[in-house]
Amino acid sequence: MTEAFGLGVARNLHLGRPGQSIDGLTERIGKAVTRLVGELRPDLVLVQGDTTTAWAAALAAHAAGAAVGHVEAGLRSHDPLLPWPEERNRVEIDAIATLLFAPSAQARANLMAEPAVTGRIHVTGNSGIDALLWMHARTDVLPTPGEKLILVTCHRRENIGEPIARVAAALAVLAARTDVRIVLPMHDNPAVRAGIVAALGRVAGVHLIEPLPYPEMVALLARAHLVLSDSGGLQEEAPALGVPLLVLRENTERPEALASGNIALVGTDPQAIVAAATRLLDDPEAHAAMAIPCFPYGAGRAAECMLDAIEEWAAER
Prior knowledge:
By secondary structure, this protein is α/β, with parallel strands linked by helices. The chain has 13 helices and 10 strands.
């Protein structure tokens, strides 16, 4: 990712392990970040998102005496189990953060409603949209005449197992159409990959590929007629590029995207997925209504806003 933006990595902690548990990863991150904070003595540690990495790093930095800034603060599904553990992670990061960079007014309202949140809140948009628009402007997007490309990603923990099997059943039905090509970049998680390969490895019209570098993923997204995904990031990115997205989850921490009309929740029921996708494939007016670019998470200036807020905070110290 950093190479795609002409950046380098000063320190790679190499903490990933095959088949790792959340507890094992958390322990390794905590020890490594504690050592790093002790060595570097930072005034501020920025963490982005709601992954276990962000959560464990934020807790370790806070315990070591560094202030924490949370990029993408305030997203809430209001269900501690959906998604798990991301909802727990984001709530606990926000409770200890000194600076909270909320991507939307709704995210700010979520933070304001939580007594545990005592840090300074800034509505900035999301830096992920900055990255998307920067890369999209530098990426050639080639048309795909004669076919409708469906981009699929599926990796959330709550979808591992039977839910992935249900999604795969829907994809097999859609792949039987002669006007559709389905491309699915597979996640590195072996539990996710095994289910996808078992269900779709021999289905004609479904192309299972390795994870793509960011420029290629942006180009694929921009070419897509439709996206099916359980990804949080794609719920922000697809609306910015005007690509309709069906969310393979029962709820979302991004209601702003739902309100925009660019995304819709379909869950993992095969009939619901096929019905919603078929409508967007066959009804040009329905597709056009969801294909208008919109920016509920900012229009590409989030990084500037965050930097301004950090400079203001630093000047007051």
